[in-house]
Design brief:
It is a single chain. This protein has one domain. The chain is 61% helix and 13% strand. It has four helices and four strands, in the order H-E-E-H-H-E-E-H. Strands 1-2-3-4 form a four-stranded antiparallel β-sheet. The longest helix is centred in the N-terminal third of the chain and has 32 residues. The N and C termini lie close together (12 Å).
Length: 168
Amino acid sequence: MARASKGGSRGSSGMLMWLGLSFIILMLDQFSKVLIVGYFRLGDSTSVTSFFNVVRVHNHGAAFSFLAEAGGWQRWFFTVLGFVAAGVIMWMLRSHAGQRLFCFAMACILGGAVGNVIDRLLYGYVVDFLDFHWHGIHFPAFNLADSAITLGAGCLILDELLRVRRGK
């Protein structure tokens, strides 16, 4: 495993860079959602290409609408989970500030998670709007926060594969 930064100025400045990236992701996510909420009604859809629409969908659950019909408690469960994840991620960013790919992944996940938590607090659901489809099959709608979380997860997998490879 790569040596973790123990804080100090290098760790603090490194963490600030990653928090800055998270903030940029958060702002892009929230700005895109403000546009969707401002210009689209629930269920509205605009075709962009033969395989992509911009829609307005409300997700009361988690990924792929998991627990969407759970009766309301899931809003607070996923909100608390998002806060806990943000705290753990910030600790990890501080502890591993010198590990660029790992921290990039964590920053993407942090920005996306906080973006979706803000939706849950403001609206009671997450605003999704990116709708990809192919031959009548629709992938569940998602948003920029979800995209950042997915990118971060992919980078975490890559980081681990590279770490294991370096260890051999």
